[in-house]
Amino acid sequence: MLFGAVIGLERELRRKPAGLRTHMLVSLGSALFVLALLQTAAVSPDYDPLSRVIQGVAAGVGFLGAGEILRESPKEESQRTKVRGLTSAAAIWISAALGIAAGCGLWQLGLISTVLSFLVLNVLKRLQ
Predict the structure, then answer these.
(1) In angstroms, rounded to a whole number, what is the distance separating the alpha carbons of residues 70 and 80?
(2) pTM exceeding 0.85
(3) Which of 22, 27, 90, 105 could staple 18 via S-S, CB 3.0–4.6 A?
(4) Mind telling me which residue stretches traverse the membrane in this protein (predicted)?
């Protein structure tokens, strides 16, 4: 999350659509997908089907997230196009990672990630 925060802060300062919270959630979700696979691979020698399921879930949920992103066309040519919903899309994606952690029996990892996600979505929103 810290690595994502560094990039997200830079994007936030430049007033780009994907800012601090979005980058932090994507970093956390990516780490969660990988950790779930690594933890499961450590206890099961036949984890190839699981890795395919995780890949399929991550890609499929990406389409749901894409549906959450809206572009508002500018009313005048001098205005920029507004992009909205990137953080919501990232939250949908991390929800998939949390489901995978739960499905793999990694409840501690899922609980920690849920708390971190909640803090990013709520506490950082207030600070923003």
Answers:
(1) 14
(2) no
(3) 22
(4) 20-41, 53-71
